[in-house]
Amino acid sequence: MLALRAGAWTRLGGGGGSSDERLLFDRPAVLSGPSLVGPDAPVSSDARVMVSSGAGGTLDTRGEIEPPDGGRWISYWVIQVNAEVASVEALGRSRTVPWHGHVLVVWCGDPPVSVLARSARGETLAELRTV
After folding, report:
1. pLDDT tens digits, residue range 14-59?
2. What is the 3 state secondary structure string of the chain?
3. Beta-bridge partner residues of 87
4. How far apart are CA 82 and CA 47, in angstroms?
5. 17 vs 41, 56, 131, CA distance in Å?
6. Segment 3-12 long-range contacts (CB within 8 Å, at least 24 positions apart)
7. Spatial separation of the C-alpha atoms in residues 27 and 8, rounded to whole Å
């Protein structure tokens, strides 16, 4: 994970993992269902349209060993959507979905209440919610 500090990107850390070898292929018409499961995993209203395929976070101490405020926790979800989704709305912002269908949602503090998948006409196709 990276943070922008004084105009320069600083590596904070984070983990790694494997990914699907088809990561940058065109989006499918229908997703095969959630790959992220567990008590803290967001739940989709339609896993054929939108799922969270990854999540993580790291502590940003802003370069201090013991920051007075304890630092800030930066979290993310990797969202995957099908070919019908034109944009994803989260945290009051809308993002156009790239051809491969993967969108990164990043935040500090509490997670987003929901992420909406929208069609090109603006219709809500699915919702990803925290549990």
Report:
1. 665 555 556 666 787 888 866 666 666 778 888 899 998 878 888 8
2. CEEEECCEEEECCCCCCCCCCCCCCCCCCCCCCCCCCCCCCCEECCCCCEEEEEEEEEEECCCCCCCCCCCEEEEEEEEEECCCCCEEEECCEEEECCCCCEEEEEEECCCCCEEEEECCCCCEEEEEECC
3. 96, 118
4. 9
5. 17, 11, 24
6. 3/60, 3/74, 5/62, 5/63, 10/63, 12/58, 12/59, 12/60, 12/74
7. 33
pTM: 0.76
Tokens of 5: 């500090």
Taking phi first (over 0 means left), then psi (-120 to 50 degrees means alpha), and beta for anything else, what does residue 41 get?
A: beta
Residue 14 phi/psi, 5-degree rounding, is: 125, -175
Task: Supply φ then ψ for residue 78, to 5 degrees.
Answer: -100, 120
Which residues contact residue 113 at a Cβ distance below 8 angstroms, ignoring those fewer than 6 apart?
Answer: 129, 130
Write out pLDDT tens, residues 52-110.
Answer: 887 888 888 777 788 888 788 888 888 999 999 999 999 899 999 999 999 988 888 87
Class in CATH terms, 25-129? mainly beta
